[in-house]
Specification:
binds pyridoxal-5'-phosphate, four-stranded mixed beta sheet, 42% helix, alpha/beta, seven-stranded mixed beta sheet, 13 helices
Length: 355
């Protein structure tokens, strides 16, 4: 039974935890290089890409920074309709880039037309966007945005944060023409935190070669040279890679489409339950996340009392994020969570509401 209905870190299956306990190997050994290679090759399937996948010993934010430092000389557009999108903008500013923020209401999807109008003729080298905003439970129409941007400014690189969606909702890197897609281990992959995965297009790698001050730890040009030899410049997070290797087999055995359908069915169930109990969904219809549902606290319940009640049953949900704290609460349905877990949670929540 999965008990953590918070959007990461999520519950990790016992057998996946066990996989981390494999004995250490020298990281520059044939045995480890074989594991490294097969793990990054299997990971490509999650991104629907034939491009390379980097595995970094960091959380996802590390790769937000890597995208900015490696592929942007000066000018980048940040699409901001949630807290994590805003973080990416701040990452760009704090790395000295000329970052422009295109903001919209947090409960509205980013608009392909508005983005295309902003990018047109302005020479943005890149844009950043979050696929699934964990703060709002809103999924941005990344495919349509990429299409609109390609039509007006084909040279603009497109970077996508799929931290809370990759392996939980479909995102097709190659078919949609994306240049970098990144994720963290502790969300839909249902691994412990500490590992990030980032897939990068060839044209972005080419651009990186001419970008100055890429730093050292997240210099993807340096990383690529090592990756081509199934290795990494610094010591990799070996135990997490053992677990990823194992977990990828479980995920691919379930089948990505089946996994997406499982998430989507749980999202629908939670949305219907909330509405049947006089609580509305924060994100508009058509743009609702499959992996986390943000519910408006229309009944004015105490989210902390609700969580105390749930904790007696060893369950927990998440309060709203940042400015949405207490105004909303969030139920995650990602990773190992199954419909029967959701049913058990909703039953307990119903009991709380009746009190
Ligand atoms: N982007 C999104 C959409 C997130 O949900 C999070 C974390 O919750 C992050 C970025 C930051 O990821 P990390 O904590 O792995 O650095």
């Amino acid at each position: 039974m999965s008990r953590m209905f918070v959007p990461g870190p999520v519950d990790v299956a016992d057998e996946v935890l066990q996989a981390q306990a494999a004995p250490m190997l020298p990281h520059r050994s044939k045995e480890f290089e074989a594991i490294y290679r097969r793990t990054s090759e299997k990971s490509q399937q999650l991104f629907y890409t034939n491009y390379r996948v980097f595995l970094t010993a960091s959380s996802g934010t590390g790769l937000q920074e890597a995208a900015i430092r490696n592929f942007v000389d000066t000018r980048v557009l940040s699409i901001v309709n949630g807290a994590f999108a805003d973080r990416w903008y701040e990452v760009a500013v704090s790395n000295g880039k000329d970052a422009v923020k295109l903001s919209s209401e947090w409960n509205m999807p980013a608009s392909p037309d508005q983005i295309a109008d902003t990018v047109k003729g302005d020479g943005f080298e890149a844009l950043t966007i979050v696929h699934n905003e964990t703060s709002t439970g809103l999924q941005n129409p990344v495919k349509e945005i990429a299409e609109a941007v390609h039509a007006v400014s084909p040279e603009t690189l497109i970077f996508v944060d799929a931290v809370s969606s990759l392996a939980g909702a479909k995102l097709e890197m190659d078919a949609w023409g994306l240049d970098m897609v990144l994720t963290s281990s502790q969300k839909c992959l249902a691994l412990p935190p500490g590992l990030a995965l980032g897939a990068v297009s060839d044209r972005a790698m080419k651009k990186a070669e001419s970008v100055q001050n890429r730093g050292w730890y997240f210099d993807l040009v340096r990383m690529e040279k090592h990756r081509n030899k199934d290795s990494s410049p610094a010591t990799p997070a070996m135990s997490l890679i053992f677990a990823l290797d194992y977990q990828l087999d479980r995920i691919l055995t379930e089948g990505l489409e089946n996994r997406f359908a499982r998430h989507s069915a749980m999202a629908k169930r939670v949305q219907e339950w909330a509405e049947a109990h006089d609580q509305s969904i924060y994100a508009p219809e058509g743009y609702r996340s499959q992996t986390v549902t943000t519910i408006r606290n229309d009944r004015g319940i105490s989210v902390s009392d609700l969580n105390s009640f749930l904790k007696q049953r060893e369950m927990r949900i998440a309060n709203g994020y940042g400015p949405l704290k207490d105004k909303t609460f969030r139920i995650a349905h990602m990773g190992e969570t199954q419909m029967e877990d959701i049913e058990e949670l909703l039953e307990a929540m119903e009991e709380f509401l009746k009190k």
